[in-house]
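Reopening this ticket.

The earlier resolution said the output was attached, but the attachment link was broken on my side. Pasting everything inline this time so it's all in one place.
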Amino acid sequence: MNLFRATATVGAMTMVSRVLGFARDILIAAMVGPGLIGDAFFVAFKIPNLFRRLFAEGAFAAGFVPIFSELSGTHGRDAARDFAAQALAVLVAVLVVLVAVFEIAMPWLMMGLAPGFVGDPEKFDLAVTLTRITFPYLLFISVVSLLGGVLNSLGKFAAAAATPVLLNLALIGSLIGLADVLPTAGHALAWGVAGAGVLQMVWLWFATARAGMALGLSIPRLTPKVRELGRLMLPAVVGSGVAQINIAVDIIIASLLATGSISYLFFADRLTQLPLGVIGVAVGTALLPLLSRQLAAGDHDGAANSLNRAVETALVLALPAAAALMVASEPVVRVLFERGAFDAVATHATALAVIAYASGVPAYVMVKVLSPGFFARKDTKTPVRIAIVALVTNIVLNLALMGPMGHVGLALATALAAWLNAGLLAWVLVRRGHWLADDRLRQRLPRGLIATAGLGLGLWFAVGWLAEPLAGSGAQRIGTLTAVVLGGLVLYAALAHVFGAIKIGELRALARRGS
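Inline output:
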């Protein structure tokens, strides 16, 4: 398996999804904006996504991929397919019950996750209604997670990486086609979420069938391997989902702040999700099955090299992304979102949150890259302990910073907690002898920091020099920001090559062979 090619495949599809996601968010900002309907929908969207990332995507992948890869390598594809079918049956049975319970209990769930809405009956009732529409998405996307784990374990990354594209297309289509038909644009978006789950599930079922791994439903049975999956998943629910738990805490506390705070955090988070998805999720997704196979084969040197190259790739890309978002936050938010219901006040408030979130981008990415170092060894307990420390830290920082900094304090708390999480993951891996930065990584990282500093300085001058056109008409803004972005990419590439953080020849070689 070629780590570079796999990462590039996932990253490219994620980039397509993020571009469509920005188109989606531009429509939402213009047609909904920050306010009652926006806050209600963003809660309705975040709640099923929170459970999906905790129970399905992060935890499920952490337990499923190592077992599936081990069975495929030692007992053949038939044994791996049988395990996947057994896991699917149990997963669907559990989630049908879970979704039914939460649909009934949604008002009480909303009191816990958005207590600030209780004092506004209109906002509270709308949030409950929209979340009831979106919550079945959890069932469909959990099946998508399993099917994606099968494909990723087989080295087929494109189909699973393309599923978020379907979500964004469904939301764009529902907003355009249903906003004038349904009671509010929030209702249109909620139905778009539910429909997207069905589309994604059907898409990946056909993809697994083409790969010779078609799965059907059977009577759920707790086989030994399914029990092992459950044992691995239980601690991973917290271990790989600490960022999502932090987001839930942010929702709870942000609901207590002024109307619009949840919306500002949503749009800011969307911008920082770009480097996290294109870099962190892409590298982590490609790395987990590779490490699982190498460790199962006893190739510990190869696993160490793979982790070093993953860390190197992630940081060399994440550091400049963080710097760019922090320096150019306001013009980026203005160009993308400031129109219709999204005014200049919302732009400034969102830009401040972007700066705070972006300060943690390298940490968010490193959590995604370092976690497979534990999961590939079937160790899902250690990240739990680290997650608890980071989670408690996030809550304490939220409460300390919400007063003086408002919604920006919540974003900064999330970033600081992520740095603690990443630092502890790295420290434990090093302490156990599972990871030691090699000479190449130790040489490349300082050079990447120098190149990043040069990029930040260049962007700072460019944003100041072009302040007038960046605040001008719509076309002028877009053209100027595009020039700044392209110039920043060229500047960083040149600086990284000159200082030796990236070698173009090595990238060509990696594209031709495994890393």
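Reporter confirms the inline version is readable. The two ends are 9 Å apart (CA to CA). The chain has a mean pLDDT of 82.
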